[in-house]
Amino acid sequence: MDLLLLEKTLLGLFLSVVLAIAISKLRGKRFKLPPGPLPVPIFGNWLQVGDDLNHRNLTDLAKKFGDIFLLRMGQRNLVVVSSPELAKEVLHTQGVEFGSRTRNVVFDIFTGKGQDMVFTVYGEHWRKMRRIMTVPFFTNKNLRLLESKLANTKSTTNEGLKCAIDHILDAQQKGEINEDNVLYIVENINVAAIETTLWSIEWGIAELVNHPEIQRKLRNELDTVLGPGVPITEPDTQKLPYLQAVVKETLRLRMTIPLLVPHMNLHDAKLAGYDIPAESKILVNAWWLANNPANWKNPEEFRPERFLEEESKVEANGNDFKYLPFGAGRRSCPGIILALPILGITIGRLVQNFELLPPPGQSKLDTSEKGGQFSLHILKHSTIVVKPRVF
Ligand code: HEM
User: Fold this and answer.
1) Which of 326, 338, 347 to mutate to test ligand 1, by most ligand atoms within 8 A of the CB atom?
2) Which of 3.40.50.150, 1.10.630.10, 3.40.50.1460, 1.10.10.10 is the CATH number of 32-153+160-388?
3) Residues in Cβ contact with 167 at an 8 Å cutoff, skipping those fewer than 6 apart
4) Probe ligand 1: pick from 103, 119, 134, 196, max atoms within 8 Å of CB?
5) What is the pTM of this model?
6) pLDDT-derived band of residue 158, with 50, 70 and 90 as boundaries?
């Protein structure tokens, strides 16, 4: 009796494997899919590539399979693009087609099935949320308030934030969004705004500690342009090209969202002559675009001068598709307008007032990175010496 059951189970298993192979063969015939490692039925490429899809592993795969390749992660297609041309196609030229976001059970829980903004599909809800979320943050008035808040370390008022929250609550009262949407906006800001900015500041400090000559040059610029001890404020950042270059170089070498936030095509699409089945997850390997020696001179070096010399036309706003720390196009980061001044002011203030040094007995900080699919941050937090300057 038991043997019969075993026989039936084995037969059932065999038939499902044959069926899965037949289906994947049929699919393969219908679509001209991008190249990639050969998937096995049911598991796809899980067993070959594992689940550590960080920017470096994906770069190795791009070197093997090309600027566009496909991984089958279980039932989901994952398409990875690794050239400025293809990044432009995904983010700009076909920005609507590839402008949605993937979802899974975990995101559904955190976003109430896409009621937020960062992870919602491209459409009316996203448009509304983006407008409500970005308008209050990015009016000039609020930037000035934020600046004055940062300038007077005795925290003035929380007015900037209050205005923003008021605006969002107004939208709720007018019935444009519901209470859940408000909560998800706040949650999005927590994730998208605070962590990314903090990680970038930490990377910037670490690089300045490890490159004392760059730190000196930056301090010299601040002292010369503003006068020793005159605290930097937001409008000053425009007059400080070396400070801007330090910020850009930090965001290039230590890109905190190295694969952008995954994009998705709602419908079947075409990319680089290949078919991209509907609901594929699309990753843009922005870290590799900004660290590929084919595009940059000695990219592994922390050298802010590159942004004043050979790359002087490259901005952080996505004007050049080899440098996309904030993405580009419709789903690009609306927070860039806050993040850049915050980084400039924070790093500027520190360097104006202190010498940033490694701990005694240590010549360099450990800048090993911890990279995942969504983030790139420093592996070990270090303690540094902060030596006040005497003016
Ligand atoms: C150094 C700081 C920051 C970095 C490096 C950064 C980077 C990014 C990147 C790479 C994306 C995804 C772009 C794409 O998928 O194509 C993104 C999206 C987003 N960021 Fe930022 N960000 C930063 C700070 C902020 C701040 C301060 C805010 C808000 C105040 C913010 C709000 C958002 C939102 C709402 C999205 C989703 C946009 C959408 O899906 O339409 N970010 N950010």
Assistant:
1) 326
2) 1.10.630.10
3) 132, 135, 136
4) 196
5) 0.85
6) low
